[in-house]
Design a protein that fits this description.
This protein is α+β, with helices and mostly antiparallel strands. The protein is built from 10 helices and 11 strands. The strands form 2 sheets. A 6-stranded mixed beta sheet has the order 7-9-6-10-8-11. Strands 1-2-5-3-4 form a 5-stranded mixed beta sheet. A hairpin with a 4-residue loop joins β1 and β2. α2 runs parallel beside α3. The radius of gyration is 19 Å and the shape is globular. The relative contact order is 0.16.
Length: 322
């Protein structure tokens, strides 16, 4: 029974909405996507995400970057499933201050990313609101039949990898809040880089995957929970950019801050040790930086391990919506 107390996002989903998801396509609401059998050769992958002014972006952010961020966070979900993007639906909730000039810039951003990722707008809805500006996108992609990479496939002994660098978007958000000019980090916050090509290359290699949106520890925790496994992360091996090290410093608190910051939109995934060379080859082909950062074990949860082999205490693993 759900009480009136404040409950967290995944508890809310499990108690109220998972019972409504009776189709196998919904995957029990335990992944970032739904999966439909579209043809004899391909499955259709669907995902949806929204961004809200004041929470996911600033009112002063350029309109074209708001559009690109809204689209790219959905493409990141598709990338983590190994899916090829097809198109998207767009819903805009517009406050009265938004004018045609802003909307033209917003559409320009979408147009540029449509060309970049080879996708098209399929439909949507426009409405007004007395609240903050919000942008909701539902993206569709395709994946070869029964080849989708889910959160649920990690096995004991699998290696844990992550693309790119971790914590940069969190650093960019901190820089914007404190009015520091750290262009590289601000760009990472405003413009995620979905790893679409690398995600496709992971088909048949990765045993499980998730995009890093709530924070590396939080999202690997979700993967561990759905796979019924434990994941140990070697703290020293988490990749961080020089710009982030310069901003937050080199110590353990800074490392924990990076591992729990959100909005990175990298891919965290697992693979068998014998497939390590295939992972590195896929990374090279797609021009993607990949780091091996941990190990899947029996048990539950996720832990950040220091150089002495002991878990680092982490108060909050990542972003929580509620």
């Amino acid at each position: 029974m759900v009480t009136e107390r404040r409950i967290r996002e995944f508890e809310l989903i499990a108690k109220l909405f998972a019972p409504l998801a009776t189709s196998k396509a919904a995957l029990g609401l335990k992944d970032d996507v739904a999966l439909l059998h579209a043809s004899a050769a391909d499955d259709l992958v669907l995902t949806t995400d929204a961004i809200v002014e004041g929470i996911d972006f600033f009112a002063r952010d350029p309109a074209d970057t708001v559009a690109k961020k809204a689209l790219r966070i959905n493409l990141s979900d598709l990338a983590a499933k190994g899916a090829k993007p097809i198109g998207y639906l767009l819903t805009l909730m517009l406050p009265g201050r938004i004018d045609v000039r802003w909307l033209r810039s917003f559409a320009k951003g979408l147009r540029a990313d449509q060309r970049r990722f080879g996708i098209t707008l399929l439909g949507g809805d426009l409405s007004t609101t007395r609240g903050p500006l919000s942008v909701s996108i539902t993206a569709l992609g395709s994946v070869p039949k029964e080849k989708v990479i889910l959160r649920s496939g990690a096995k004991p002994g699998d290696l844990v990898f992550v693309t790119g660098t971790i914590g940069d978007a969190g650093g960019g958000l901190a820089a914007l809040k404190t009015k520091k000019r750290v262009a590289a980090l601000i760009a990472r916050y405003r413009l995620p880089q979905p790893r679409v090509a690398f995600g496709r290359a992971l088909l048949g290699i990765a045993s499980a995957a998730i995009d890093v949106s709530d924070g590396l520890l939080a999202d690997l925790g979700h993967l561990a929970d759905v796979s019924n496994m434990r994941i140990d992360i070697d703290a020293a091996r988490i990749p961080r950019s020089r710009a982030l090290r310069d901003l937050w410093g080199p110590g353990e608190p800074a490392l924990v801050r990076a591992a729990t910051a959100g909005d990175d939109y990298e891919i965290a995934f697992t693979a068998r040790p014998k497939d390590r060379a295939r992972v590195l080859a896929a990374a090279k082909r797609s021009g993607t930086r990949v780091s091996e950062i941990g190990l899947v074990k029996t048990g539950g949860g996720v832990a950040l391990i220091n150089s002495d082999g002991r878990p680092i205490r982490v108060k909050k693993r990542g972003w929580q919506h509620f």
